[in-house]
Each structure stands twice: as structure tokens, then as C-alpha cells.
Amino acid sequence: MRIEDTIRLMIAARTILAAAFFLSTAQVAHATIYKCVDAQGRITYTNDRSLARSCRVLNPDQPISSIPPPQQRSAGARPPPAGAGPANFPRVSPGTQKARDQTRRQVLEAELEAEERSLLEARAQLNAQADTASPEGGSEADLAARLRPFQDRVALHLRNIEALRREIGSLK
To answer: Is residue 27 situated within a structural domain?
Structure first.
């Protein structure tokens, strides 16, 4: 027998052994499911035989869903309007809400002022670095690398200002 034939035979034997192993270890998940109805008419399902007194075994081919069905409305009932909550949901008076909105606006405007000041400082630092003479033999790449953190700070403050203006613009 040639070496190639021996190798093919070994590969085939390994494949057959692996397939046999996986097929022998695979177990089918199976449980007997019981449907129980108590004295009040409530339905429960269980797979625990000790809890399944006066229950009936469900057909294993029957699909089982653990998701409850949607509640059915009467024919004349309309869905509740959007934003309507339960009757006991806490409400805020219009005056209280207006005061909260005003406080929020003041906080956002103070943040915007602070960000604008930080932007001016960051631009001044960037300009100072750009005006500083580069060391002898410094290349454009060296200058760009030195300015990069300062440019990033300016860009960050610009993004923050833009976001704060959008937030203030979306207030009531």
C-alpha cells in the first residue's frame, strides 16, 4: 500500500469517528409539558411532574409560546392618545415645568458662554504655537505634529458650541 493511500484511509477513518462521536453525543431536548387550570380558571404550564396534579399533557407537536397575547379591546374602544399615562402617574404643574425649563436654559447658556471662552483661549494657544519659531531643521511634519493637539482642542470646543446651540434651539 502506498503512503498516499494510507493517508487517505486515515483521514476517512478520522472523519467517520468524528461523525460517530458527534452523532452519539447529540441529545434531543425533550420535556413533557403539562397544562394546568386552577380553581380560579388561571392557566399555568409546567414540566415538573410533581406540580402537574389534575393537569393534562400537551401534544409535543403543538407550538408553545411564552409571550402573552395582546389584550383585546371592545369594538367601540379607541386606543389611548399618545403621551397619556396611567391616571396615578405623577404630574407636574405647568408653572413648575416652566421653571424647570427656564433653569435648564440658564444652565445651557452658562455652559455655552464657558465653551466660547475656552474656544478663545484654545485659539490663542494655537496661534501662539504657530507663531513660535520651530527648532532648527524642523520640518513641516514636525510643525504639524506640534500643532495637532492645539487644533484638536479648537475643534472640540467648536463641536461643543454647536451641540449647545442645537440644544438651546430645541428648547420650548
So the answer is: no
In this structure, is residue 47 part of a structural domain?
no
Give 154's strand partners.
none
* Closest CA relative to residue 131, chosen from 104, 114, 150: 150
Q: Name the residue range of residue 129's domain.
A: 94-169
Residue 23, CB-side half-sphere exposure with 13 Å CA sphere? 6
Per residue of the chain (172 residues), what is the pLDDT tens digit?
Answer: 678 888 888 888 888 888 777 777 655 556 788 888 888 888 888 888 777 677 888 877 766 666 777 777 666 666 666 556 677 788 888 899 899 999 999 999 999 999 999 999 999 999 998 888 666 667 788 888 889 999 999 999 999 999 999 999 998 7
